[in-house]
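Priority: medium. Attachment 1 of 2:
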């Protein structure tokens, strides 16, 4: 039986972890998402209904980027509030469309109670340690990568290392470690990458990622490699339902 201890002195015997990504909220300037396909029609209502039926206040929901279409933080506030009003502890990382996510201090000060943003660090909730970084497109081969893409990719690897190092500094026996990355941490052949090597090196239990959309038949929603379980959680691919992690 899981025993998790919180700062307020309460013990929790049943904390669960869920994940979803690519919510693409647009509360301040509504964007019709059904132009991308029928699976996006009423998708937020479906997500909200499933979330409220599934998640208890002590549970955790990981949101792996592409949170809001907003271009600045003030326009993203209604979307952050929408997330904050849902039950559970919510943990966010930045996606490639999250242009509103700039100074991390401003982002964190805009979040509701029990909502957390990870950037170059680690969040502890009970016995769960949660790390993460946006990532970048993993090359299909060693050639044909632009200097700019390589620079961004290498920087994101360093940011993930910072986050995992922060986790390692506070890890205790029995902790569960989860990492979030917006981009897939491997290419279409699921070849090893600097990201997957880091997850294995630091003993990560589960990795949550998003970014991919389209035909789910071409994608693996869950896979295990070298002791790490990977979950693809783009909301359209998981039928607008939270994915249970571990």
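Attachment 2 of 2:
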């Amino acid at each position: 039986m899981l025993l998790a201890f919180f700062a307020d002195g309460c013990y929790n015997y049943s904390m669960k972890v869920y994940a979803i990504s690519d919510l693409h909220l647009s509360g301040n300037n509504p964007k019709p998402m059904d132009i991308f396909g029928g699976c996006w029609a009423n998708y937020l209502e479906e997500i909200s209904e499933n979330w409220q039926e599934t998640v208890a206040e002590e549970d955790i929901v990981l949101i792996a980027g592409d949170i809001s279409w907003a271009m600045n933080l003030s326009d993203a506030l209604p979307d952050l509030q929408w997330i904050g009003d849902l039950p559970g502890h919510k943990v966010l990382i930045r996606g490639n469309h999250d242009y509103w996510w700039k100074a991390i201090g401003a982002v964190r000060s805009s979040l509701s109670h029990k909502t957390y943003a990870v950037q170059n660090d680690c969040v502890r909730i009970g016995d769960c340690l949660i790390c993460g970084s946006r990532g970048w497109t993993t090359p299909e081969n060693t050639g044909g990568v632009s200097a700019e893409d390589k620079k961004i990719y290498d920087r994101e690897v360093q940011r993930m290392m910072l986050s995992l190092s922060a986790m390692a500094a506070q890890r205790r026996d029995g902790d569960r470690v989860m990492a979030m990355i917006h981009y897939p941490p491997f290419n279409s052949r699921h070849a090893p990458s600097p990201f997957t090597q880091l997850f294995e090196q630091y003993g990560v239990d589960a990795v949550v990622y998003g970014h991919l959309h389209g035909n789910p038949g071409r994608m693996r929603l869950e896979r295990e490699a070298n002791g790490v379980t990977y979950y693809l959680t783009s909301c359209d691919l998981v039928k607008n339902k939270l994915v249970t992690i571990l």
